[in-house]
Amino acid sequence: MKYLVTGATGNVGSLVANRLLDAGETPCVLVRDARKARKLYGDHAEIRVGDLAGSRTDLTDAFEGCDALFLVNTGPDLGERDRACALAACDAGIQHLVKLSTLDVKTGVGTGRWHARGEAAIRNSGVPYTFIQAAAFMSNALSWADSIRDDGVLSSSTGEGKIAFIHPDDIAEVVVSALSHGKALNDALVITGPEALSYREMATAIGAATGSSIHYEILSDADAMAGLSTWADRADAEALVDIWRAIREGRLATVSDGVQQVLGCPPKSFGDWIGENISYFVDRTGRSR
Predict the structure, then answer these.
(1) Are the CB atoms for 268 and 193 separated by under 8 Å?
(2) Taking Cα atoms as reference points, which of 47, 11, 12, 16 lies closest to residue 32?
(3) CATH architecture of the domain with residue range 3-138+165-191
(4) Contact 184, 130 (CB under 8 A)
(5) Residue-range domain boundaries for the chain
(6) Residues 83-92, mean pLDDT to the nearest whole number
(7) Do residues 87 and 124 lie in contact, with contact meaning Cβ atoms separated by under 8 Å?
(8) Residue 11 and residue 7: Cα distance in Å, rounded?
(9) Residue 21: enclosing H or E segment and its boundaries?
(10) What is the 3-state secondary structure (H, E, C) of 257-283?
(11) What's the pLDDT at 196?
């Protein structure tokens, strides 16, 4: 099998590419910045330069000669991008398209609507597929680091609602298993972390690990939107606030055994993730606030 990994300079894509390398494979990585990819992979991966927003013809050329494709697309035009990629995958003879999707497809919340359109386009294209419908990433908690480290505060509009964040390592392991297994499910696999936790509970766990007291501040949707407007575009901001509202209302507390089914072991806990990333939540001297 020859594997093509998109998003290979990003969070999950880089983990997938590195796991394939560790398994003795020489994956192709499709990137926009060849120099950045070369710094990550040297000569160990085949680097192809391209853009997932490109034409069907360009994408077909980029996918040519590969058997399996790991697809990571983002943004409100995700449905159109996924459609172009799926049709190009058919043209290029891809035998298995593994798409990183979201658990939010089930509820139509936030980016779930974008991914639902993408999933529909892939199903209609005829390419064999597996959708990895993942919960939100534990690594999203890195966006809390400055506020927790500098002010001892986590502010959120999720209220006391819960979500089972998943470790990016578990996502990557499931993706690699799906790719290397070779057989498309033509279905979705739902994967989450082991336990649904509230943002308050996660903040408390970070505080316990750093030896600090963290205040949890509950925001309104309007306050959350105002904070996002300083750095996110309108579509992304609205999607995030919609997701946080759904958490608050108890609509995203799903816990699945998908990781256990695929890997034969339980998913990593939020405590595991904190232990691996505790340095982000303390100052440069190693002291907590």
Answers:
(1) yes
(2) 47
(3) 3-Layer(aba) Sandwich (3.40)
(4) yes
(5) 3-138+165-191
(6) 98
(7) no
(8) 8
(9) helix 11-22
(10) CHHHHHHCCCCCCHHHHHHHHHHHHCC
(11) 98
